[in-house]
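User: Okay, second chain of the day. Same drill as before: sequence in, structure tokens out.
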Amino acid sequence: MSTSADWIARGDKHIAKTYGRYPLVPVRGEGCRLWDADGKAYLDFLAGVAVNSLGHCHPKVVAALQQQAATLIHCSNYYHIPQQIELAEILCANSFADRAFFCNSGAEANEAALKLARKYSKEKHGENRFEVITTLGSFHGRTFGGISATGQEKVRLGFEPVVPGFSYVPFGDIEALRGAIGPDTCAVLLEPIQGEGGVNVPPAGYLAAVRELCDANGLLLIFDEVQVGCGRTGTLFAYQLEGVEPDIMTLAKALAGGPPIGAMLAREAIAESFGPGSHGSTFGGNPLMAAAGIAAMKVLLDDGILDNCLAMGDYLRRRLEELRSRYPFVVAVRGRGLILGMELSIDGAAIVNKALERGLLLNCTVGKVLRFVPPLTVTTAEIDEAIEILGSILAEFG
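Assistant: Same drill. Structure tokens below.
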């Protein structure tokens, strides 16, 4: 049997070097635990970057995949796919939306949203309505449209020229947004809570003010809920925290509890701009992925997961605040539900590396923010275990 070192050596020969990988080779997962090729166990508070929201290999998702794989894995979107239809019904019944378009990832969902916004706006307002305002610190994917929309220069470096028609304003600054709106603006795209940008929560009332600005100027409001949707904040969708509905919303990551699927949701009047041939995805919403999505959404809605997310989110936040009170280099703890960030005044990479060595999986965004996105099924015992490991590491820096 190959060891972790064997796999890493083999990967170094043939895998594109697009990731700064940690020396970890996961081979099995269950609940909040991962095991590597050498048999070492890890407490996973990264959850595939907020993908494994129900834990690794949730039995109902596994059963849905097994049954569907033995029945029909893929067929063309030229045909009507029952599993895709049922998943769309669930999403629309539990959100603002009337229609869903399925794809394979968050980046693709955002591409669909941007294309729809431009097409709708040109049909309704004229050819010049194509510009989209996004926010600094945002992240919207790695496609050309995604990096063009992302308000972080580092993701665009080396790929210029990017797609024209995007401008960026500070997140949470309503006056900056107001000043950026011009005659060619068609939409505002933002994350209700920024994930990759450092778990940034907007000021109270900001999302409502953005909605009012969009309504007053005839603009579409697009919420990127790729990371914060599907229960991560303790509500099914993050926009429900403030009761501010978008016109278009994008989902992915946790939508199927692990398997790759993305979705763009939209109101009927806007979705009508996507007619036959205007957009598509070969694999989007195929029977296998949609079946997993149905299973994951039913667990999320019916098995008390949202209540657990709220309770465990409050508990994890309290435990992180205890650490903040003990170590002056912990600047702040912020977030909602089970997407929490611990901002440091020191570099966070060394802490993440030490946590990995001691069996705790975290990551660090923007250099100094430790991000905690454990499965929504996490327990108090698992949180206590994570805090014990993290506390012992912080003590070495204190």
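The CA atoms of residues 44 and 361 lie 5 Å apart.

User: Thanks, on to the next one.
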